[in-house]
Structures are given as structure tokens and as C-alpha cells.
Amino acid sequence: MMSQPWKLVLLLAGIFIAGGVTGAFVGHKVLQAKFSKRPMPEQWAPWHLKRLVDRLELKPEQREELRPIIKRNMDELNHLRTAAMAETKVVLERMEREVSEKLTPEQRAKFEKQNQEFRERAKKFGIDRPGGPRGERGDRGGPDKPPGDKPPPDKPTDK
Predict the structure, then answer these.
(1) Closest CA to 73 of 39, 52, 44
(2) 129 within 8 A of 136, measured Cβ to Cβ
(3) Any alpha helices (H) in 37-136, and if so which ranges?
(4) Using CA atoms, how far apart are residues 56 and 50, in angstroms rounded to an integer?
(5) Residue 159 pLDDT > 90, yes or no?
(6) Is 87 left (phi over 0), alpha (psi -120 to 50) or beta?
(7) Opening angle at CA 33, ends 29 and 92, nearest 5
(8) Contacts for 29-33 with beta carbons within 8 Å, 24 or more apart?
(9) How far is it, in rounded angstroms, from Cα 136 to Cα 71?
(10) Distance of CA 48 to the CA centre of its chain
(11) What pLDDT was estimated at residue 152?
(12) Rounded Cα–Cα distance for residues 82 and 132 (Å)
């Protein structure tokens, strides 16, 4: 086949590298697709109720009894999430400021550039928005319309 072993090594290394690059690309796309399909916070209650209706075969009267319970608790979860994100931002900004004070001017310039690049990447994914990765209403039609073709089973009435 090949008269020189370095050619075989080079061929195998090329195959290995190509597989790694392909795997990283496919993995990135899969995670990106999964991330984009997550429901927005204002969709949590209708989605959770729909899941319960589908999986537990709830009767209409059960659905109406559960609707305010699910909405109240999902609203509380969203409030906790928003508060935690705000507190996280405060801590990170404080850390950046404290670290910056200990750096030389050259290091500070690099550090600020690094932080700016991070903020731009975060903004690209919408992480800096109050409602999370896709903002308050999301990219898919707002709080009353989940992604896909099917609407939620019932529109929440106790907003």
C-alpha cells in the first residue's frame, strides 16, 4: 500500500482531525438547535400544563383547577430566575472592577478588551436581555404562541 510509514501516520492524523472538526461542528449545531427550542419564561406555565394534560390525561375540570397553581408557581420561578441573573451581573461587574484595580495599565487594557469581547458574544446570544436568551417575548411569536405548529391547550386567563 504505502512504502513510507510517515504517510500512513499523516493520513490517520488527517482522518482523526477531520472527525474531530466534524464532531465539534455537529455538536455545536445540535446544542444550538436544542437551546433555541426552549420555551420562554412566559411560556413555562402553558407548556407545563400542556405536558400534564397530555401525559396524565387530565379532565377539563382538573386542567382549570391546576391552571392557576401552575401559573403562580411558574411566575415565582421566573421571578427567582430574573433576580438571580441580576445578582449575578452585579457580582461579575464588581469582580471585574476589583480585578482591574490590581492590573497594570497594559494588563487592564487587555482585560477590558477581553471583557468587551465576552459581552459582545453574550449579546449575540441575547444573554444580557432581561427575559433571557431571546428577550422578553422571544423569537417565536410571544408568550401565547409556543414554537411549532400547535398552540398551547388553553390560553392562561389569570394574567
Answers:
(1) 44
(2) yes
(3) 44-56, 60-101, 105-124
(4) 10
(5) no
(6) alpha
(7) 90
(8) none
(9) 17
(10) 18
(11) 44
(12) 8
How many alpha carbons lie under 13 Å from residue 26 in its C-beta half-sphere? Answer: 6
Q: pLDDT tens digits for 127-136?
A: 655 444 444 4
For residues 90 and 108, what is the distance between their CA atoms, to the nearest angstrom? Answer: 20
pLDDT tens column, 44-84: 888 889 999 999 999 999 999 999 999 999 899 999 989 99
Closest CA to 77 of 40, 125, 22: 40
Hey, how many other C-beta atoms are within 10 angstroms of the C-beta on 32?
Answer: 11
DSSP summary character for residue 58: -
pTM: 0.50
Higher-confidence residue of 140 and 42: namely 42
- 146 CB neighbour count, 10 Å cutoff: 20
Rg of the chain over CA atoms, in angstroms?
Answer: 24
